[in-house]
């Protein structure tokens, strides 16, 4: 009885903190994921993301991350902006919607700490750790296991009621809670994401070659951008939302209500020329707390120039 009660309390508190959904799964070895991850790494689909090779065992078993772990609490936080708050389609360079506002690592980490504190105060002393995309945790696998959605053909987690524009985070704790079960895959025969990807990064349904993804090129790759990708980025200079934008399930996306995720007012009014004339000062002002800082001013300029040179050739 107490297990059910604690589960209810945790989910209620998660909702109060602004999380869209909360799912529970038993902290076990991810048997299904092990061969898939190994194959993906062996085929070098992680490109220069060497960190993906580290801590292979920990990625598959949360009990190696948290002593005595019994439960993985998966949480979704919406970041979908209102239509009026999105960048225009024409005459601008685009950044992924997730990077419009304050870096999600900070926003979510604070909420997770609050949730963990609540568990310790209301339920009892619990050992655990907060995870936001910065440790060897397979977020989507755990969210799928806890019934928050299914992993789509574009390898994003998709939730029937809201689509896929959200962040995934976890609490791994040594408290036993009532686990949820997975849900069905509803991609059906749809191939919109595969057909729309300009770099053919979705090499087969449910398999994304990370080293071919626009997000990889514009964020992770520190070298020169490959010439064979010239003309394939459209107007994306940080990240890419194409496979999510075309997904039919994202017609159900609802605007977030997290003030920290609101874009700098100047961002949504920037034209192509403004991006091309971007100074270090304006960059720092626009992206002071944003995830765009990850690529840095020089990295963003490199991306802009790469896309700009393509546009010039087209003319």
TrEMBL record:
Binding locations of cob(II)alamin: 59, 133, 154, 157, 168, 215, 240-241
Cofactor: [4Fe-4S] cluster; cob(II)alamin
Active site: 133
Enzyme class (EC, first level): oxidoreductase
Pathway: tRNA modification; tRNA-queuosine biosynthesis
GO molecular function ontology, one term from the record: epoxyqueuosine reductase activity
Residues noted as binding [4Fe-4S] cluster 2 in the record, renumbered to the chain: 197, 213, 240, 243
Entries under PROSITE patterns matching the protein: 4FE4S_FER_1, 4FE4S_FER_2
Keyword annotations from UniProtKB, A to Z: 4Fe-4S, Cobalamin, Cobalt, Cytoplasm, Iron, Iron-sulfur, Metal-binding, Oxidoreductase, Queuosine biosynthesis, tRNA processing
4Fe-4S ferredoxin-type domain span: 175-207
InterPro entries, alphabetized: 4Fe4S_Fe-S-bd (IPR017896), 4Fe4S_Fe_S_CS (IPR017900), QueG (IPR004453), QueG_DUF1730 (IPR013542)
Superkingdom of the source species: Bacteria
Binding-site positions, tRNA: 222, 298
Pfam families attached to this UniProt entry: Fer4_16, QueG_DUF1730
Catalyzed chemical reaction(s): epoxyqueuosine(34) in tRNA + AH2 = queuosine(34) in tRNA + A + H2O
Summary of subunit composition and partner proteins: Monomer.
Function: Catalyzes the conversion of epoxyqueuosine (oQ) to queuosine (Q), which is a hypermodified base found in the wobble positions of tRNA(Asp), tRNA(Asn), tRNA(His) and tRNA(Tyr).
Record protein name field: Epoxyqueuosine reductase
Lineage: Bacteria, Pseudomonadati, Bacteroidota, Cytophagia, Cytophagales
């Amino acid at each position: 009885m107490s297990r059910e009660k604690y589960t209810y309390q945790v989910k209620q508190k998660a909702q109060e903190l602004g999380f869209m959904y909360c799912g529970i799964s038993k902290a076990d070895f991810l048997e299904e994921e092990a061969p898939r991850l190994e194959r993906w790494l062996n085929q070098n689909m992680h490109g220069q993301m060497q960190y993906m090779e580290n801590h292979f065992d920990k990625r598959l078993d949360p009990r190696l991350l948290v002593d005595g772990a019994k439960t993985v609490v998966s949480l979704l936080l919406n970041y979908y902006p209102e239509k009026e708050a999105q960048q225009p389609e024409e005459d601008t360079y685009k950044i992924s919607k997730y990077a419009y506002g304050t870096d999600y690592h900070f926003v979510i980490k604070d909420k997770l700490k609050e949730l963990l504190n609540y568990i310790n105060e209301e339920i009892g002393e619990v050992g655990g750790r907060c995870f936001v995309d910065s440790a060897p945790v397979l977020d989507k696998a755990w969210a799928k296991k806890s019934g928050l959605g299914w992993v789509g053909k574009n390898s994003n987690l998709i939730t029937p009621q809201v689509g896929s524009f959200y962040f995934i985070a976890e609490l791994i704790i040594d408290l036993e809670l009532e686990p949820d079960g997975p849900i069905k895959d509803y991609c059906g025969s749809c191939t919109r994401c595969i057909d729309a990807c300009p770099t053919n990064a979705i090499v087969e349904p449910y398999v994304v070659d990370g080293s071919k993804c626009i997000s990889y090129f514009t964020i992770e790759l520190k070298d020169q951008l490959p010439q064979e990708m010239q003309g394939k980025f459209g107007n994306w200079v940080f990240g890419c939302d194409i496979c999510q934008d075309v997904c039919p399930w994202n017609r159900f996306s609802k605007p977030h209500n997290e003030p920290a995720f609101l874009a700098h007012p100047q961002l949504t009014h920037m034209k192509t020329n403004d991006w091309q004339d971007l100074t270090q000062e304006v960059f720092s002002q626009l992206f002071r707390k944003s995830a765009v800082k990850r690529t840095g001013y020089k990295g963003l300029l490199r991306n802009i120039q790469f896309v700009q040179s393509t546009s010039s050739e087209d003319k």
